[in-house]
């Protein structure tokens, strides 16, 4: 027994555990409560660069989902990594009750970017992960609305898995075991046109969804509005302009403009969750910019550090977040605005300001989408193919091109992960895919925004290989 422990210690120092040994240790010592065991057996990766992530055997996997859109600017992005190295050698640690240059400059750039886009002055409040920033936004909203704790959110919406964030996330699955710690949102249908009743155009369906929502305010008997006081029971509507986990569902252009008019009529704030679609995933800094409305609060995370040290935050317009109403200590986390996060984030913001990401992402996204639509002609199980910028969706269906086929979607992603696809250069490799959607039958593609055209061509060739294998 002692000998075994010594061998383990030695191997640990030398980093020579085999993959089988590591998986055995994982099984024994790691909680299964995270999402690792969605895939069996779980995959161990070793190193990464650009659009590729490699296992210990150096097998390349072309990543088409970049850590749920946290690594928008490619693995090991030299410019962003260099900022981390500089910070590591300068001020890698500082308690969050003190200031450092990078935090202030980053907040200023984000606030100025939003002022330019939304015409409103605002402030930034940092935290560590996306869910924590959502929690902060809930506090801010409750505070600004004199303690109202009820929110609207969308069916298919995802805002995280902390307790407050789970309460406004549509899946009951994330709440089932834990009871209610906060008020569950009222979930409103999102204009998911591919699965809408037949006979309506995308715009007509968007209009229909808004009308259905506004019906709630027609009479006090519909449960949300007191016409005598002129007050709604609900404080805010939490939205993802393009649903992420919901399957990269893109609403019609008129939808948010019409929805915002209703919200303004009844004094309900608009909170936009840009945690997955922000930082040029859709070709704009924020995905809501495609839809012609201004949020009251905006939540961001993930790609702000290109997936390095976590950082997240909220932007809110001045009236909601000024120090009078949101005083010191309103929220706090030890690692909020940590310098190993603010430094790469600041470098990323500089990069966005210097380079034409909008033009580049829209062009590459259109190039990718055209090839996917071409692939769809040969594979009818690709029921719906759509995209905005580099947020692309492939909905996997039966031969009728409509009935959701989760089993086939699982099969496709498992095939992609085997690592034995023909990469075309004499090498074998794999594809990293992710599944989302209301029926867990959507391959949600979030490739690196820095992906080359040749890598897009390769992605399509590899997708074709897995479609051929399963058919
Ligand atoms: C739209 C959206 N909101 C919130 C979150 C939660 O962020 P985190 O996982 O960093 O807590 C996510 C994560 O996937 C997300 O996609």
Describe it:
The chain is of the alpha/beta class and 471 residues long. It is built from 14 helices and 18 strands. The protein has a 7-stranded mixed β-sheet, sandwiched between helices. It starts with a helix and ends with a helix. The protein binds pyridoxal-5'-phosphate (PLP).
Give the topology:
Elements: H1 2-14, H2 19-29, E1 47-49, E2 52-54, E3 60-63, H3 66-69, H4 78-88, H5 101-118, E4 122-127, H6 130-144, E5 150-154, H7 163-167, E6 186-188, H8 202-214, E7 225-226, E8 231-232, E9 234-239, H9 254-265, E10 269-273, E11 297-300, E12 312-317, H10 318-321, H11 339-354, H12 357-378, E13 382-388, E14 391-396, H13 406-417, E15 421-422, E16 428-432, E17 435-436, E18 442-445, H14 453-470
Parallel strand pairs: 3-16, 5-6, 5-9, 9-10, 10-11
Antiparallel strand pairs: 1-2, 2-3, 4-12, 7-8, 11-12, 13-14, 14-18, 15-16, 17-18
Helix pairs in contact: 4-11, 5-11, 8-9, 12-14, 13-14
Describe the structure concisely.
With 471 residues, this protein is of the alpha/beta class. The chain has helices at residues 2-14, 19-29, 66-69, 78-88, 101-118, 130-144, 163-167, 202-214, 254-265, 318-321, 339-354, 357-378, 406-417, 453-470; strands at residues 47-49, 52-54, 60-63, 122-127, 150-154, 186-188, 225-226, 231-232, 234-239, 269-273, 297-300, 312-317, 382-388, 391-396, 421-422, 428-432, 435-436, 442-445. The protein binds pyridoxal-5'-phosphate.
Radius of gyration equals 23 Å
Q: Can you list the ligands bound to this structure?
A: pyridoxal-5'-phosphate
Task: Describe the strand arrangement of the main beta sheet, using strand numbers.
Answer: 4-12-11-10-9-5-6
Strand percentage lies at 15-25%
- Mean pLDDT over the residues: 95
- The best one-word shape is globular
- Count helical runs: 14
Overall structural class, as computed from helix and strand content, comes to alpha/beta
